[in-house]
Design goal:
The protein is about 70% helix and about 0% strand. It is an all-alpha fold. It folds into 2 domains: about 100 residues, Orthogonal Bundle (Rna Polymerase Sigma Factor, Chain: A); about 90 residues, Winged helix-like DNA-binding domain superfamily/Winged helix DNA-binding domain (Arc Repressor Mutant, subunit A), CATH 1.10.10.10.
Length: about 210
């Protein structure tokens, strides 16, 4: 998995050790390092910038309040993203938020993020292109965003962690607190559902063009 932290592995290890000793300053540095990542993961889930900002603040507050619950038996980022995903999924199920967010917006400071995953290949290519190609790409991004929003939260979460965050199956299992087999089955179902949504949108567009 590509690194999403501005901290070196050694610095992160030092900070985690200090957190385990009750150092709140070290906790603040860790939260500051992961703040943007948490925000953008939540944004991909809830598709609303205001809700994402509020939920991110709630994640940070809960991390501060429950810092004693972090035992160091997983990566700090895993523990933090578990809080973020729990809040985002609860929010979606409670409010049924279905708003579009632009998926081409990249997280600042994520140089080195995995560019080889299926969704990344579609949304992260910003080279010199013809006007027609740029329009086609934007249409693909919009269709993808709407298709992702149509997925159930449990399916959306696993495909975002895998294809946009570049996590392996074990890391996803730790974030979502589910068995490894569940991650694999959910990812399989999520990709089938996503493909069905995309095929459906393309079929609808073809029908519209034909009727014109």
């Amino acid at each position: 998995m590509a690194s999403h932290s501005i901290l070196s592995s050694e610095r992160e290890r030092q900070l985690v050790e200090q957190v385990l000793r009750g150092d709140r300053g070290a906790l603040g540095e860790l939260l500051g390092a992961y703040h943007k990542r948490v925000y953008h993961v939540i944004l991909r889930m809830v598709s609303n910038t205001e809700d994402a900002a509020e939920l991110t603040q709630e994640v940070l507050l809960r991390a501060i309040k429950h810092a004693d619950n972090f035992k160091g038996d997983s990566k700090f980022s895993t523990w933090l993203l578990r809080i973020a995903m729990n809040l985002a999924i609860s929010h979606l199920r409670r409010t049924k938020v279905r708003k579009t967010v632009s998926l081409e917006h990249e997280v600042a400071g994520q140089a080195g993020a995995d560019q080889a995953t299926p969704l990344k290949n579609l949304i992260a290519q910003q080279r010199e292109q013809t006007a027609d190609y740029r329009v086609e790409t934007q249409e693909q991004i919009q269709r993808l965003g709407l298709a992702l929003e149509a997925l159930e939260p449990s399916l959306r979460s696993v495909i975002l962690l895998r294809d946009l965050q570049g996590m392996d199956y074990q890391q996803i299992a730790e974030v979502l607190a589910v068995p490894l087999g569940t991650v694999k089955s959910r990812l399989f179902r999520a990709r089938l559902a996503l493909r069905a949504q995309l095929n459906g949108s393309l079929s609808a567009e073809s029908q519209d063009d034909h009727e014109r």
